[in-house]
Amino acid sequence: MIPPNASLVKYDNPALVSRNTDKKSPRSRPLKVSQKQDVNGSSPIPPPPKTTKITANDVQSKNQQTEEILNSILPPREWTENGQLWVQQVSSTPATRLDVVNLQEQLDMRLQQRQARETGICPVRRELYSQCFDELIRQVTINCAERGLLLLRVRDEIRMTIAAYQTLYESSVAFGMRKALQAEQGKADMEQKIEELDNDKKELERQVNELKAKCDAIEKREAERRTIEEKKHAEEIQFLKRTNQQLKTQLEGIIAPTKK
User: 3-state SS string over the chain?
Assistant: First the structure.
């Protein structure tokens, strides 16, 4: 027989339950369908026993109700081996002070064996402390069912809160990933736009250089034309001056004999 994984919760010895309902082990208890405890505490839980005068029948009934409450809080473990169904129910034996000390020692030992982290998020440490809390609930429920049910509400509230924080964390991570992807997409778009603007800038610079070159060529051509025109104009002035001087000389030559 291969028992399931060891737990800090104290269980009775495994009981063999045959697949044939007519053949059961004499030590096996009536098999109840185990339901996984909901985080919100919605699984049915029998009401705690009412306070009455203590008699032998009342004690037996109270023990039976306590076992039912324990089975509801901590469902029996079931596994199959060689075609046989084994069931291991939680122990209903009251705990002593020594059991509590041993529980603490086992918790410390398993934390060390499984190399649980001392701080931060650690699934191993959370699992072991959850088992330890379940064992404490079992011990308290045996002595006082009402106190055990109240601790069960506290446990379920803690699990619900942790589940809510986990959902919030996952949603925040997903939101961060979406924002990161959007940022990456926006970055790619901006890089493409920057590249287009750079190309436009280069094209405009090329056009400016071409226009400057044309301007320089026009200025150079106009300067050469002005120089030629000025030279031509100066030559014409010199020619007119020489012509004027010749005409003046001729006129003076004509006028001089007349005065005599």
Answer: CCCCCCCCCCECCCEEECCCCCCECCCCCCCCCCCCCCCCCCCCCCCCCCCCCCCHHHHHHHHHHHHHHHHHHCCCEEEEECCEEEEECECCCCCCHHHHHHHHHHHHHHHHHCCCCCCCCCHHHHHHHHHHHHHHHHHHHHHCHHHHHHHHHHHHHHHHHHHHHHHHHHHHHHHHHHHHHHHHHHHHHHHHHHHHHHHHHHHHHHHHHHHHHHHHHHHHHHHHHHHHHHHHHHHHHHHHHHHHHHHHHHHHHHHHHHHC
